[in-house]
Write a structure and sequence with these properties.
Blueprint (H helix, E strand, L loop, with lengths): L3 E5 L24 H8 L4 E5 L4 H12 L24 E4 L12 E5 L7 E3 L10 H7 L6 H6 L1
Parallel strand pairs: 1-2, 1-5, 2-4, 3-4
């Protein structure tokens, strides 16, 4: 089994307090998420799995994972090379031909379901082998955001 961890974006990394809203990434990060990703990367490969465009997520991540002051450090004219990362990982869109994510210290982004040891998602129900449990639990299912409102 692959030693990768897949993490959903909306509601798990991006707070997503207004839901899909207008399709933008409008919110801040969920408290502690980048520190947790950094810790996970000490042992696993980590990637973001989302229905959003990987470019949109990468842009949002760069706004939240990099220092706000622009500093040029001599890597050509690429604007991605003008800010220092706050955390000990880089960000990369996973090419469509990649079948497994196994890069360490690189947070991958994809719209495809790649093999993973664990999928972290605020809208998931754990399947325990009994579909009756799924069917009976579905009407009461709430994300952590919905449960917090009650």
């Amino acid at each position: 089994m692959t030693q990768a961890i897949a993490i959903d974006f909306d509601g798990v990394i991006h707070k997503y307090s207004k839901g899909w809203h207008d399709g933008t990434c409008y919110d801040d990060e969920v408290r502690g998420v980048f520190e947790a990703i950094e810790k996970l990367m000490g042992k696993y490969s980590v990637f973001i799995l989302s229905t959003r465009s990987p470019r949109q997520i990468k842009k949002w991540l760069k706004e939240h994972c990099y220092e706000s002051d622009y500093v040029y450090y001599g890597m050509g004219d690429d604007p991605d090379n003008f800010r220092w990362p706050k955390f000990n990982f880089t960000i990369e869109i996973i090419p469509f031909w990649v079948k497994f994510w196994n890069k360490k210290k690189v947070l991958g982004i994809t719209q495809r379901k790649l093999p993973a040891m664990v999928y972290v998602d605020d809208r998931a129900m754990r399947f325990n082998g009994d579909w009756n449990d799924i069917l009976s639990g579905m009407p009461e299912f709430k994300t952590y955001q919905e449960a917090a409102i009650e």
